[in-house]
Each structure stands twice: as structure tokens, then as C-alpha cells.
Amino acid sequence: MVSSQDEPLFLHDDDEVTPTEYSKGFWKILIVDDDQEIHAVTKMALADVIISGRQLEFFHAYSGSEALDRLTEHDDIAMVLLDVVMETDDAGLKVAQAIREQLGNDEIRIVLRTGQPGYAPEESVVKNYDINDYKTKTELTRSRLLTTVFSAVRSYQQLCTINENRRGLRKIIHSASNLMEKHSIVNFSEGVVTQIASLLGLRAEGIVGARAPHKDNDILVLGAAGHFADSINKSLSTLNSDEIERNVRKCLNEQRHIHTDTATVFFIDGQAHQAAAYIETKNIVAEYDQELLEVFLANIAVGFENANLFEELQTAAYLDPLTGIPNRAEFTRCLQELSEKPDKDKMIAVIDIDHFSDVNDGLGQDVGNLLLRAVALRLTDQLGDKVFVSRISADVFGIYGPVNIVTPNAFSELFALPFRAGEHYIPLRVTCGFASAANPESVNGKGLLKQVYIALKNAKNNSFDRYNYYEPSMEQDTQRRLHLVRRLRADFANRKLQVWYQPQVELRTKKVVGVEALLRWPQSDGSFISPAEFIPLAEYSGLIVEIGSWVIEEACRQINAFDEIGLPQLRVAVNVSVPQFRKRDFPELVEKQIEQWGIDPKRIELEITESIVMEDPDLVADILRRLKQQGIQVAIDDFGVGFSSLSYLQKLPLDRIKIDKTFVNNSDEKSGKIIIETIVDMARRLGLKVLAEGIEEQSQLDYFLGLDCTEGQGFFFAKPMPADQLICLLQKQMSYS
């Protein structure tokens, strides 16, 4: 096989090849033959061969089964010189079949050799098993053997490059399909390193770096491969390589590719975002590869820009742009994690700044924004790293952390001193709700958030200390209220609510001169839900405006019905809520009903409370004057219980004062008599009529008769009743007169 005249083909070309960093190592050659002499001769013939800067390393097998063992142990064998006939006549062919089908190795090159030409493989075998060459052993002189090996190794190298290129491309595509994931930019950048290295036929050893956000002097490693893999998401300086840092900075600053003796740094121009891909290589990029790389880098730039954009969008989705701390979505996500692993040592809280809108209204939104930043800064600085702080709505902060830190006392101390907002030092009061993280796993993150909000609302409504801890009973009460609101809305829409009437009588004659319209909510079992319970719910839900308008309409309709059957001309008193009075067109709505039913405006008396007056006295006075111009009467209900100033009595166009039943019940006591007599005397001097509510005993009636109080109302005379019962009562009164 070896001749002194045989010169190794391409040997001189290979001698001129300078080994590169990538070239370190060997091309692995497997010799499979049952003749030991063939092994020795082949190895000697190829001993000094260098292909693409790499020498050959030989492995040996003396049977088909042993060949498969070697191939299983080494998946990077470049070629196999395979004897066809060994322990069986087709042992080599079975090895070739196993390489392609069982091992799934389509890169290794197979060269069949045989000393018995009669056992040549069929054409289908060469085609199906991708046989690189087939030679008889007598044909393989040294020069021919070199030609065969050189061709096979080159073919193997090209296949590896193509497959590596495909793998890198798949990684880019996979990264692009997952750009919305948290670390998508990392996956994408790692794929960039792999793909560039693959295109150049190199191992993936390198990094992708970019300037860190808001830190112009810092370079952040976005992705890395090879021995740089541990540097991902770290500063470039952590690599402890002045050369790498210098060349990456130079690439970014000069916006061009940088070539050195040991690496190439590729500039990736993403317009808004630039990056540098540092690849370890001593090879200078061949001219014919330049255009391919430029096209590739242009596509990479677009992908890199999109990856950064999605990363920024994801960050924005979980970060409050005003304060720079996590937002509601991130707070809810963290609570979801807490709910999956309940922790009795963690406490959840929400902090609501009281009357924050006054800052925006009085000092401007810019000052309000500065104030929110100041609050966020103090919370994060003073509560420490163990506490999670977020802004979950305009002036509400969500917090969770150790139970010994997240406490009312800690928050009280945090808000003890004013906050600086520009030139202003602004003191703040807060209301807090707390809930333990030691909840059953059935409560998810949104459920935990609901619990702290329930505690917050309870603190606002019921707590003198301005904080409260969540209790299951709070949620039960809330659920019951919401259930009642839904039922109330449905029953009102289905016209199930009723208006009852309680007579108002002239005390001396006990003649009914008026009635008060009272709302009733009947249930299917014949019971009634107390107005003291459902009226506040109607006000809370905003339904009171619609219900109040309907009661006025029903009162006007009933007056019309009374007149049609010839009953005495009674006045009907209707209670008006605060939300109704806030509507500036309220007088027009009343006037419309009066005109629609064709009744005398004097027959309608609107009862307002002191709380309505004190909310906006000027607005109330204006609305009452407009009502009085129509001829409608106005009464102050529950007079004296609001502890308000009496000065409004001089400003408001009133007709009647109703003494609250609380005072009536105390009419047998000296202190009670003093208050009642003062009210009656004051009303007489102001020219106002007086009606005493809640008269239930003869002694109370006698007392008010002695004061010359003209009218009264209470169970002593009659309880509230439906309209048909009132009609019967009035008809009896007419028959007695």
C-alpha cells in the first residue's frame, strides 16, 4: 500500500495552514478491520497528515460490534475506514447501516474497504447509507488513501458546519418565538453567538454585550456561550479581561466591526439599541463570507431590536413608570406565589394616602407626582430589602414582608415626618389594611389582594386607629352587602319595591293632614328588609338616585289617585338623599313629575337632613329656592341630631322643622324638655311650623299639645301602611267628620 514514489496529495497545501484556536484538537479516524496489519499500515501512511490545521487521531476496532462500541463512545469521529468482510461477509455493511439508522449519525463519513472485490456492496447500499467511497485494499496506495481521507474529512467538516448552522438558526427561531418570556433577550443573544460561530465554522465561544440602561459607562453581558456562559446578566468588567472590554467598547463607540489577533467583535446596529458580539477566533473572515455575514447581522439587528422592545414592554407591564417600583400586576403576581406557598411569617398590607387628591387639586399634579416618588423612596429605603414595595393604584401602595416589619407601628413611624415634594413639605395621614400570608391554598393572589382591600375599607369605615386586620367575617359581611345590592337592583327593576305611608296628624283634632312616603322592600316570605339596612346600600351603589326619583313619581301618582276618589287634599312628604341633591337638575326633575300628574306643588313636601345642608350650604340654598319658586314645601328632618350650626336656618327657605324622635323619647326628662322647648320656641320665632316625630304615648301627646306644637307623627296615631289601607283610613275619617 505504501510506495516511496507516492506523494501525499494536498500535503503541501496543508503544511501551509496555520493552526487556529479552533484548530486545537484532532480529526478522529476510526479504522475497522479484522487484520491488525491493515491498522498499522494505515496509521503509518497517515501519521503526519494535517487537514485544516488539525492532525489525525486514530481509533481501532477489529469487528463490527467493537466498531459500534467505539462509535457509541465517541460521537465526534470524522470518518471510518470500514472493512466490509470481517466476522461475517456483510459485517461492514451492517455497521454502516447501524451508523445511519441506529446511531442516527449523518455527519460521519464512511469509506468502505475490502480485500475481496466479489463482496462489493450494491448501489442501493452506497446510496441509502451515504457511503463516501468504496475501494479495494489493493487500490489504496498512499496517495489515493490521502485523497480519500482528505475528501472525507473535508466533507465531514462541511456537514458539521451546515448542521451547526442549522442548529444555531433553530435556536434563533426558537428565541424569536419566545421573545415575550422573561429572559427572551438572553436566549436571543446566546443564539446570536452560536449562529455567528456556526457560520464561521467555529466553536461557540463568545458574548453579546450592550450598554446597560441608565448606565452609559457599564456594558452588560446579554448572552454568552462556551466558557463565557456564567457571565450572562453580569457586567462586562466581571470577565476580568481588559482586552475584551476594550474591544467591545471600541466596537460600540465606533459602530464598526473590530478584528484582533484572538477575536472578532461584530457590531449589531439595532438603531435604538446597539450591541457587540465578541467571538473568539484567530481566523480573519474570508472575503466571500463578508457579504453573508453582513446580511445575517442586518437580520440579527432587527431581531435584537424586537427582542429589546419586547423586553421593555414586559418590564413596563410590571413596573410603575412614575416611581420606578413594581406595579399592581407585579404585586398580584407575587401574591399568587405567596398563595401557592402560604407563609405565616409574612404579612401583606395596603397603604392608602388619605385625601391625596387635595394635593393635586391644591398644589398641582407635578407636586403630587413628586410626593408619590418621595413616599415610594421612603418606603423602600426604610423598610429594607426583605420587604416588597409596589404602587398598586394612584395613591395606594402594596407591601408584603416579615410580620415583625410590616406592622401598623412601623407605618406610623414612616409617616410621622412630612414628605418633601419640590419646595413643599407635606404631612400625610394613611389608612392601612393588613392580611396574613398564612392563608389556605384555595385563596389565590387576587383573593389575597381582595382580603387586604376589605381590611382597608373596614379601617376607613369603622376603625378609629385607621388600620385593620382582615377577618373572615369582614368578607362575609361584604359578600352579603354585595348580594343585597344585586337583589335590590333586580327587585327595583322588577318593580317589587313598595311605597308605604305614615299619617301625619294635627295634634288637637287628630285629623290626618299629611303622610310621609316610606320605602319598603318586601321579601318572598312576607318579611321586609329594614330601610336602615338597604337605604345605605342603595346610597353606596348609586341606586338611590333612581329609587329616589321613582318615590317622588309614585308620591305624585298617589296624590292624583287620592284626588280622583275625592279624598282630602293631603300633602305627601318625601325624603331626599344626598346624591339626589348633588344633581343640579333635581328641581327640574321634580317639576316634571308634578306637571305630568297634574297636582298642586304645595301637596309635595321634600324632607332634607342636616347632613345634606352641611355638605354644600350654598348649593343646597340655591336648589331649595328654585323648589320654593315652584311652590314645593321643604322640611328639615331629624332636626338637632346633626350637631350642625343653626345659622343655616336663616339662609334656607324652610317651611317645617321635624323634631327627631330621640328628643321626643326624652320629653319626660328635664334635659329633653329644655331642648324640645328651645327648638319649638326658635321655630315659632322664625315662622316655621313644627312636627314631632315618634309620638307613641298619651303623655307625649299631652306634652306637645301644651307647647302649642301643631302636628305629630308616630305609632300612637298610626303605623306606616300601604296606599290601600291609607285610603280606608281616610275614608273612615271623612265619614266621622
TrEMBL record:
SUPFAM superfamilies: CheY-like, EAL domain-like, Nucleotide cyclase. Residues 481-734 form the EAL domain. Pfam families: DUF3369, EAL, GGDEF, Response_reg. Residues 28-152 form the Response regulatory domain. Coiled coil: none annotated. Signal peptide: none annotated. The modification 4-aspartylphosphate is found at residue 83. It comes from the Bacteria. PROSITE patterns: EAL, GGDEF, RESPONSE_REGULATORY. Residues 344-472 form the GGDEF domain. Keywords: Phosphoprotein. One of its GO terms (biological process) is phosphorelay signal transduction system. Transmembrane segments: none annotated. This is EAL domain-containing protein. It comes from Idiomarina rhizosphaerae.
